């Protein structure tokens, strides 16, 4: 699970269960009133391997989750419309039953990694024909990899395109939970090949969208616009303003620390704790420190995963 903070935008990379628990926590902190934009990425559509991104879990906190999810933008790949892919999926289900005595559930999708491997083999076979007729050093993997740049593959699973630096051109959509719907509504379509976007549905937001980068009362909540004019401030007033600042802070909170642990089998098995110390405007030095921290965390996680193998 990863969290990235960019001013009033918080990007969440993780599983749906974790994300719902996180949104319930920020709802408790009064951070879903429109001052913050929460962006979550769904890397692929699969109920088993990723889960269902929705606020409804059939629990007593569904109503809170519904209100919290109104501040969420969901970024995911566009729905697959290729009819040939359905034919391939049916073939995989048939062979799974025939060769391995494994039966898929009626609405279950085949293993997405099997489909990805199938695509890789087909693309490599296509490029292998080109490689064998080109003056390419077969021991130079980097040169062979560059042959995939600026290429379009018309596969029976769909069209796969790579740009001039080898990045895949993927059609994406941006969705939002509107009108209490259990599933999100598409508000924006992004074309990977044409590099264009098309508005589909208007954005619904608790306050005028987009929210300002800087809160009305400032990052500290002690702006002169929000303080009494007589200049006499009690300790209680200052503490109240500080607590209120947390709810409307519109900065990257480099000092926010997230701890999580398995507490119980209750729906709130994961608790997110927000450290209120050191909330401040996002600066270039803070950005550099945050990037270094994220890189170090990624390297540590990678090394730990290798040691577990």
Per CATH, what is the topology of the largest domain?
Rossmann fold
Please tell me the overall pLDDT: 72
Shape: globular
Span between termini: 20 Å
Q: Largest beta sheet, briefly?
A: 7 strands, mixed
> What is the CATH homology-level superfamily of the largest domain?
Response regulator
Integer tally of domains: 3
CATH architecture of the largest domain: 3-Layer(aba) Sandwich
- The helix/strand order is EEHEHEHHHEEEEEHH
CATH top-level class of the largest domain: Alpha Beta
Structural class: alpha+beta
Strand content: 5-15%
Label this structure with key terms:
309 residues, alpha+beta, Rossmann fold, seven-stranded mixed β-sheet, two-stranded antiparallel ribbon, 9 strands, 34% helix, 15% strand, disordered C terminus, membrane, signaling receptor activity
Report on the structure:
The chain is of the alpha+beta class and 309 residues long. It has three domains: 2-78 and 171-213 and 256-308, Response regulator (Rossmann fold, 3-Layer(aba) Sandwich); 83-161, no CATH class; 214-249, no CATH class. The protein has helices at 16-28, 62-68, 83-100, 112-132, 141-146, 235-248, 284-308; strands at residues 2-6, 9-13, 37-42, 72-77, 152-155, 158-161, 172-176, 185-191, 196-199. The strands form two sheets. A seven-stranded mixed β-sheet has the order 1-2-3-4-7-8-9, with no helix packed on it. Strands 5-6 form a two-stranded antiparallel ribbon. Helix 1 packs across helix 2.
